[in-house]
Amino acid sequence: MDFPTDISYTETHEWVRTSGSGKAVVGLTAYAQQQLRDVVFIELPKVGKKFRAKDPCAVVESVKAAFDIYVPVSGEIIEVNTELEDRPELVNEDPYGKGWIFKINMSNPNELKALLSAETYKKLCEKGKH
Amino acid sequence: MDYVPHTDKDKKEMLKEIGVESTDALFQTVPEGLKKVSLDIPGALSEQELLSRLKGLSKKNCNLDEYISFLGAGTYDHFCPSIVDHLSSRGEFLTSYTPYQAEASQGTLQAIYEFQTLIAELTAMDVANASLYDGASALAEAALLALRHTERKNVVVSKGIHPEYREVLRTYLSHLGVNIIEVEVPDGITDVKAVQTAAGSGTAAVLVQNPNFFGCLEDVDRLSATVHDKGALLVSCVNPISLGIIRPPGEYGVDIAVGDAQPLGNYPSFGGPHVGFFAVKKEFMRKIPGRLVGITDDVKGRRGFVLTLQAREQHIRRQRAVSNICTNQNLLALRACIYLSAIGKEGLRELAELNLQKSHYAFDQICALDGFEPLFERPFFNEFAVKLPKGIQLRINSVLFGNGVIGGLPLGRFYRELEGSMLFCVTEKKTKGDIDRLVSVLKEASGGQTR
Prior knowledge:
The structure holds two protein chains of two kinds. Chain A is of the alpha+beta class. Chain A has one domain: CATH 2.40.50.100. Chain A has helices at 30-36, 83-86, 90-93, 118-128, and strands at 8-9, 14-18, 23-28, 39-43, 50-51, 56-62, 66-70, 75-80, 102-106. In chain A, a hairpin with a 4-residue loop joins strand 2 (14-18) and strand 3 (23-28). Chain A is globular. Chain B has helices at residues 8-18, 23-26, 32-35, 47-58, 82-88, 91-94, 106-123, 135-150, 163-173, 192-198, 220-229, 310-315, 330-367, 396-402, 432-445; strands at 68-69, 127-128, 154-158, 179-183, 203-210, 233-238, 256-260, 276-280, 292-297, 303-308, 373-374, 383-387, 405-406, 409-410, 421-425. Chain B has two domains: 68-78 and 344-445, Aspartate Aminotransferase, domain 1; 82-338, Type I PLP-dependent aspartate aminotransferase-like (Major domain) (Aspartate Aminotransferase, domain 2, 3-Layer(aba) Sandwich), CATH 3.40.640.10. By secondary structure, chain B is α/β, with parallel strands linked by helices. In chain B, helix 5 packs antiparallel against helix 13, helix 8 (135-150) crosses helix 9 and helix 13 (330-367) packs across helix 15. The interface between A and B is small, with 11 and 8 residues.
């Protein structure tokens, strides 16, 4: 199982990659996609919509479950991965790359500090399996 | 055999377990006055006595085999082919449990899938659900979908929509902080200019009925253009039988088409039960309320039918499901499915034409009577409104009833300004003789002459 160390994680299985310009890319972790199995549909958030951290903003549906995606950090959605509309399986195939879900313009980058490191998240997955 | 849910011993054990002395103590919070209600129930009857008593009671009802009805306004008296009763009363359908277990419910699921396909074809929409409770709740669910999709906060509603449907809509929306703006129907159809004024950037949807409550055909192209200009969705509530000849909603840009499938093989009974249908453009597919059946292959590549979106709507994520409706009106939807299959594409067109011709014959005959005038000068399908002569407005339905005829709906009941007008419905089931009888009673009652 892959837990890249250049990104941050949440307890609800999102990953966050920041670019230093106040923007962040968000996706679903490899662990989560493996638990969900084949993803068949992703309900993407609307570009321009503002969320507060921990708000639900998207839905991932797999052959096994329906799963809410929460916004890891507050801000405005600036881009969504429209390729997932036709190829939701990208979330399974390349969760940390082509399977990204949305980009957000952070309103409070301090919130990043509350996110989990790869090591902590890995322990969480191994321990709780949740 | 007695049915004993639990014995005295069971009761004692249960009371002991929860630490309550007696059953009375358990129910001490129930006010005394409510405990002493005694029901006046007569003693037991033998089977023969019971049948005789019930038959006597049922004779107090009048029925549509003995009376000729010209009442429509939401519930319609169409002919129902015997095959509908025959097939829908088969135990495999009639007593089947809700089809949660796909491997044990292929017949029921296939019937729902066929219903969805028929509704989608009839309305010319992309996707239809497995049915809802009735046309009114389907209309309300359409408004909810539009509000969710657009994230806007008001809906514009034509007063040409069935008044009871509008009431259900108000109930559904009453705690959502949604503003409902009603638009007048000045000369039989929705005032498009008023829609243009009422709808704005905060409007989620404009709701119309076509043919509307007065039977008139709406100016759907102008409505569609106006509504979409505002970025709102167009919701149209349609009569399924009318779609045999009039343009289906999918052909005039409707985003959500709803309606009541009671006219399709379901008896009027006492105004219910009904069955609603709900069809959308593909882009709203994942926002459909209720149940949806899909087709797939099993591991061996064989065709199979399954409930889809179920995990999301009912099992895992139900706190955020798009609707609290997670079932459908299956037996009545099945009847609609059998009915449409039995009469076929050509049959439906001929049926709609008969409705059109007979209602127009009745309209011409009634309006030729002294003192009777058309309320609106508009193209209509199988319902039309007539202004009655002053002298007979209040007593006409009792006079008709005395002559074996159930008259129309007095419009004043729902529209105060239309007091004295009556909405008639003429389906294919009425013969020329039936219509002539209506006309002659109207003529006699009004003491009038044919002009």
